[in-house]
Amino acid sequence: MLQINKPAGAKFYDHQKICIPPMRKFYQSTYYFWILTKLAFAIGGFIGTILELRKDHLVVAGKQFVFLGVTYTLLLLADVIFSLNGSYYRLIKYLSGISSLIIAVVLSGSMLVPGAVNIPFPAIFIIWFFLSAIFDLMVVKQRKHLVDLVSNKPN
């Protein structure tokens, strides 16, 4: 008999020999939430970019931030499109995850500056960026047979 080591807290389905760690199970059960919120952030990023570029007095540093924002939204959009098509490119996932993690750290740092930002609103985004980074870095894939196992439906 094949012996499979199971991480603590993992769900184990003996008839399929599948072991799902708790964090991966969480992300697989909320898979479309992460894809749809990434799409919403990509659309919001493009709208913000268009509004920012319409300003006449945009300084060089502002243009660099706009470029970084466009790059991040393009990464998000590419990740959403490839994920919905069922193809997963690790490079895009890793770049998107690392970018989300950097944004979470920068937003956290900006909250430490007295009077810079209102605390509750960015905290929600920091949590989302951090969890989204983990989602991307784990390269979570939507698997039909895992969803069926969780809902106790046979394939």
Q: Can you walk through the features of this model?
A:
The protein has a two-stranded antiparallel ribbon with strand order 1-2. It is built from six helices and two strands. With 155 residues, the protein is mainly alpha-helical. The longest helix has 26 residues, at 60-85. Helix 4 runs antiparallel to helix 5. The chain has one domain (33-142).
Biggest beta sheet attributes: 2 strands, antiparallel
Q: What is the average per-residue confidence, as pLDDT, rounded to a whole number?
A: 76
Counting helices, strands and paired strands, the structural category is: mainly alpha
Separation, N- and C-terminal Cα atoms: 24 Å
The number of helical segments is: 6
Extract low-pLDDT stretches: 12-17, 145-155
Count of the domains: 1
Order of helices and strands: EEHHHHHH
Query: What is the overall shape?
Result: globular
Strand content: under 5%
